[in-house]
Amino acid sequence: MIRVNLDVVMAKRKITLGELAKRVGITNSNLSILKTEKAKAIRFSTLEALCKELQCQPGDILEYIEKE
């Protein structure tokens, strides 16, 4: 499974969901869906924008975890 660590990265950068959504150009609702791991997919353009704003790598946001 893919774990989304967006909340961890956001906390380190001290940025709110609303502020990040505004900077990235997506809705609060869509960012919340991603943050709570309810998203089925993410566009590369969205991932790129998140990495740019959070000054991180994709691996900081997404992590592969083997199912037990």
Automatic annotation (TrEMBL):
GO molecular function terms listed in the Swiss-Prot or TrEMBL record: DNA binding
UniProt cross-references to SMART domains, sorted A to Z: HTH_XRE (SM00530)
- Gene3D superfamilies in UniProt: lambda repressor-like DNA-binding domains
Ranges for domain HTH cro/C1-type: 12-61
Q: Output the PROSITE patterns linked to this UniProt entry.
A: HTH_CROC1
Which InterPro entries does the entry link to? Cro/C1-type_HTH, Lambda_DNA-bd_dom_sf
Its domain of life reads Bacteria
Protein name, as recorded: HTH-type transcriptional regulator YozG
